[in-house]
Write a structure and sequence with these properties.
209 residues; 9 helices
């Protein structure tokens, strides 16, 4: 899969809002979106013009894809899966993205950002129902338990979680035992549980063209 190697702050600036890709830095005054209000590049200021309907749909799709850190082909796969499910396609798609293991690790507070959560998963620090799962795109199910590998519990961010508890609110579809570094999938995520400012109807319109 193609890997983005430039500064991730450029992605937030391009979309014009925080995607929370740098962890604690995104909550500080050093956030690039706060310091610079224009898109990246020497012609960033000139890009501030009225967008077409297609442009709005494209930007919404790119914003969602970048927030979850997945490729275009992966994102299209989630859309196709969602369109074949019962219910509203846009809601189904966002709920599928929320169920990714790397996103769950981030939501539980085991990692300060989704890129860091993905690294923890791929490096084998996370267990699902006691078994090693190193696939970031693994879709969790209600009733499953997410834990940190025993040998990894002395890492700095896990120590902070045990001592101070979760620094951010935990979604109601998840349950966290910060002292034992254990999370449980209480139920399927719902659209109201997703705090990203995404207009999923624009994404559905983009792929329905």
């Amino acid at each position: 899969m193609a890997r983005y190697t430039d500064s991730v702050c450029r992605q937030c600036r391009r979309e014009g809002e925080k995607l929370f890709l740098k962890g604690d830095r995104c909550y500080s005054a050093k956030c690039a979106v706060i310091k610079r209000h224009t898109p990246p590049g020497q012609h960033g200021q000139a890009r501030q013009r009225k967008q077409s309907e297609y442009g709005l749909q494209l930007r919404e799709k790119q914003k969602c894809r970048r927030a979850y850190g997945i490729s275009e082909s992966q994102f299209r796969k989630y859309y196709d899966m969602a369109s074949n499910m019962r219910g509203v396609t846009g809601d189904n798609m966002l709920c599928l993205l929320e169920r990714r293991l790397d996103n769950v690790v981030y939501r539980l507070g085991f990692a300060p950002s989704r890129p860091m959560a993905r690294q923890l998963v791929t490096h084998g620090h996370i267990r699902v129902d006691g078994a090693k799962v190193d696939i970031a795109s693994y879709l969790v199910k209600p009733g499953q338990t997410i834990t940190v590998r025993e040998r990894s519990r002395d890492m700095a961010n896990f120590k902070d979680l045990r001592e101070q508890g979760a620094s951010k609110p935990i979604p109601k579809w998840l349950e966290l035992d910060s002292e034992n570094l254990t999370g449980k999938i209480a139920q399927m995520p719902q659209r109201d549980d997703i705090d990203l400012t995404i207009e999923e109807n624009l994404i559905v319109e983009f792929y329905s063209r």
